[in-house]
Specification:
The chain is mainly beta. The protein is about 10% helix and about 40% strand. The longest helix has 12 residues.
Length: about 290
Amino acid sequence: MPRLLVLVLVLAACHKEPPPDKQDTAPESRDVSIQFRAMFDKIPFECRTQVSEIGLSVTTVRPTDMRLFVHDVALIDANTGDAVPVELTAGSPWSGDGLTLLDFESGDGFCEGGTPGMNDVVVGTVPGGAYDGVTFKIGVPFAFDHQTLEAAAPPLDVAGMFVNPITGWQHFQLGLSPTSGGQTTWPVQIHAVNCVHDGTGPVTSCAADNVTTWTFSHFAPDDDTIDMDLSTLLKTSDLTRNAVVASGGGGYDTPKGCQSDPNDTDCQPVFNQFGLNPLATPTFIQVN
């Protein structure tokens, strides 16, 4: 046998594929579907189900709306502790520009005037690996929050979540109709406040953008859900009345419910639970 051929055969014999358990089998990316739930304690938000014992007045309410925007969604790497952004799935009417609209109202029942479509997940991909935590923000980023509705791309093209180009969009919107007391509607509407513009140009700043960050160190993306307990959000709110703010020798009625007015005493209990009071510990969102 020629010496060159022998050498080739020897080299070929020395090259072996690593055994299967030694190969890197981690996928380049993995799909994730992060599940959110809107609850009244153990009762899911549902447009045809009224809920009792809500707030300080333990009143019964009819749910009329429940929508919010989330962005900067990331999973926490189990090995490094780094936040790894979720790349949102393209082409979804619920996501775009890093934003996802979570919509729990069905447009029927008590939610007439809403939209029929519903969405309770953030869908996307992350690099393959192990993850044991999650972080996200509730709200619309400043860069997208002050434009016209006509110029907005999905998921911001929803008229029911738009206020105006100065205020922007509702970051979080909950509608309730109490069945007792003096209030027929009691909304929770979290949005930017006191935004500044020169009358002709774009908004340059806001006194408060009211975007909140939520981070949970224990979260299994394949098994756990992110639950928003609306009973906890409202546990120290009285839904049967509307606050009156003293002004000079008299007073004035504040907007119904909590519409992000920092002077509205109806907003303070909501802000405490929503993460808008740095001295309070919000608990209305939990991982389960």
